[in-house]
């Protein structure tokens, strides 16, 4: 058989570290013929044209510049870490992990790529893809959170089991999952690196969605540090700013516009701000302070000193 017709070529003398972790003793007995049986659990050189993408891929965005840099590295150094695939038929494979490496290899013009081959059902595919990507790829915080959530819901894992699988404490897993409670606008900002995980962890402690969005807008507009956001959240909790409509009666409930202004001012000044408005469009704004230093801080924010 000529080289052009071969899609799998055995590689010998290569490291077995990752292969030993991925190899499943039951895989060989499940292969449908001798050729498949010989390839399962081993490292092989596989034609990139025979590999289809992973439908369970947790990463939704790949930076094109980063892919080009990886492609250039592959042209120079080759593939350092093999991808992982499952065999669908004698001449067809499906990616389990290594999407960036596969895409970059195609950009680099490679006709084949080193890969570990193993058998897996759909749920195993999902679990392996999610866990390996979480551990090895530079996923953003929202992608990690969504991956954790999928492992819990689709693979029926408890948080304790999930922590063991990904090598993280339960508290760490929970911190990521809590990000999914934030409004979509804030989640998108985390995904796109406009705000950090630290900013998000502080915001998520605020119950009121309007206040969350107000703090988020202040972070963007004023380039607030994580420490400053944490201070704002603590001050809001200390001064007891209403966190939901249950704390407001119809008689005292301000209009939506006044509520929004009040929340934004409270976020800006880091203290409870009271806005009163009468029917004749007159009213007052009260900004309390607790010390001389606190007063000076507020005056600086007003550009008064």
From TrEMBL:
A single GO molecular function term of this UniProt record: DNA binding
Residue ranges constituting the ParB-like N-terminal domain according to the UniProt record: 44-134
Pfam families in UniProt: HTH_ParB, ParB_C, ParB_N
BP-aspect Gene Ontology terms: chromosome segregation
Xref: CDD domains: SPO0J_N
Annotated keywords: Chromosome partition, DNA-binding
SUPFAM superfamilies, per database record: KorB DNA-binding domain-like (SSF109709), ParB/Sulfiredoxin (SSF110849)
Keyword DNA-binding: yes
GO CC annotation: chromosome
Protein family per UniProt: Belongs to the ParB family.
Protein name stated in the entry: Chromosome partitioning protein, ParB family
